[in-house]
Write a structure and sequence with these properties.
There is one protein chain. The protein is α+β, with helices and mostly antiparallel strands and about 350 residues long. The protein has helices at about 15-20, 45-55, 60-80, 85-90, 95-110, 140-145, 145-155, 240-255, 260-270, 285-290, 320-335; strands at about 20, 30, 35-40, 115-120, 130-135, 160-165, 170-175, 215-220, 225-230, 235-240, 295-305, 305-315, 335-345, 350-355. The protein has two domains: about 1-255, Trafficking protein particle complex subunit 3 (Muramoyl-pentapeptide Carboxypeptidase, domain 2, 2-Layer Sandwich); about 260-355, Muramoyl-pentapeptide Carboxypeptidase, domain 2 (2-Layer Sandwich), CATH 3.30.1380.20. It contains eleven helices and 14 strands. The strands form three sheets. The chain has a six-stranded antiparallel beta sheet with strand order 1-2-3-10-9-8. Strands 4-5-7-6 form a four-stranded antiparallel beta sheet, with helices on one face.
Length: about 350
């Protein structure tokens, strides 16, 4: 992966800015189809969030999480790889190896860890398989399904996988042909976004026009790890709609307590985790950080001991954001709290946190 082209001024890989666009409504869209959005955000939050939800509801959510993540990853790669290329592959006029190298490239640039093709067979029959090694995946639950999703996209197969941890933080994932569970055939749908004009103006790199804020992150494209130079936290690019689909499906299966469970799991993680209330100082700076991550357009933010109040337009992953801000408030003032939130039809998020008496 030494041949990844990066901007000589800000250090951001050219792939990031050629395939994604930061819009003035606070969202990040795929250039190839701007109805589909991504976020650039901390990834160390994901596995603790899933485990926290399981602890609260007393049930495993892995099958729902994996199915949703694979669908989102397959859709992303479907938009990346031209139909004529996949047709050549399916006619065996093109080998599988070069396209798997594309998976490796994309995954490492997006911050998913280091990928390596170990072995594969591609003869267009039921014995086909591929083994991909992943070192330090950004999420154990999400990360092991990502190469499977990409392989489904390029081969046209429905597949399944098994994995083995061969050493610490190193996993061999074997993809093989298999039908998906029929129970999810018409479920776990990823929604698309309609964009409206906003007023977000991010400073840009004068060379590549990436948001200037991305220069505060280091892309190690050999290891597939993206780190904040300011906080040391690990980052990744992924579709937030997969989380929305997961939470909606959980609510269908397990009832109306799920939104509160998601908020509570995130609150607990933030209170004991890696985020600092000092990062919330200054509405203008917070507004830019949320837009840089593709989380929406902050219209109002006030946090003091008597409570926290905010309005965020075009909010994505809104349940996680509610829990995040509640946890930040409690961490800042050392109090327990109550939280109320409302999402309007235009995805405007209103949050009110008050100290618990």
């Amino acid at each position: 992966m030494n041949d990844v082209q990066v901007c000589p001024e800000c250090g951001v890989p050219e792939y990031i800015t050629s395939e994604h666009v930061w819009l003035n409504d606070g969202l990040i869209a795929q250039r190839r189809d701007q109805r589909h959005i991504v976020v650039f955000t901390e990834s160390d939050n994901l596995d603790p969030l899933f485990r926290g939800i399981e602890e609260i509801i007393g049930a495993s959510i892995d099958r729902i999480v994996l199915t949703a993540r694979r669908r989102a990853g397959r859709a992303y790669m479907n938009r990346m790889i031209p139909a004529e290329v996949k047709e050549l592959l399916q006619k065996k006029q093109l080998g599988l190896g070069p396209l798997i190298e594309t998976i490796v490239f994309v995954g490492q640039v997006l911050g998913y860890g280091r990928f390596e093709l170990v072995d594969y067979r591609y003869e267009l029959d039921d014995d086909d398989y591929a083994i991909v090694r992943i070192e330090k995946p950004y999420s154990l639950v999400f990360g092991l399904g990502d190469p499977v999703a990409a392989l489904e996209a390029i081969t046209g197969y429905e597949g399944d996988f098994e994995f083995e941890e061969t050493s610490k933080d190193v996993y061999d994932v074997k993809f093989f042909k298999s039908s998906h569970p029929s129970m999810f055939k018409d479920r776990l749908k990823m929604k698309t976004y309609s964009h409206v004009e906003g007023d977000i103006e991010l400073e840009r790199c004068t060379n590549c026009e990436a948001p200037e804020g991305l220069s505060h992150y280091h892309w190690d494209t050999n290891t597939g790890i993206v780190l904040s130079k300011d906080t040391g936290r690990r980052m990744a690019v992924f579709a937030p709609t997969v989380l929305d689909a997961i939470f909606e499906e959980l609510e269908k299966e397990l009832g109306e307590a799920i939104p509160e469970a998601v908020v509570e799991a995130e609150r607990r993680f933030v209170k004991t985790g890696i985020f600092s209330p000092d990062e919330m100082r200054g509405e203008g700076g917070l507004r830019k950080q949320l837009a840089l991550r593709g989380l929406g357009n902050l219209r109002r933010f006030d946090m003091r001991k008597k409570g926290l109040s905010l309005r965020l337009d075009n909010a994505v992953m809104h349940l996680i954001l509610v829990g995040f801000f509640q946890g930040i408030y409690e961490k800042a003032f050392g109090v327990d709290s109550n939280v109320e939130w409302e999402v309007s039809d235009d995805t405007g998020l209103e949050v009110e946190v008050t100290p618990r008496s």
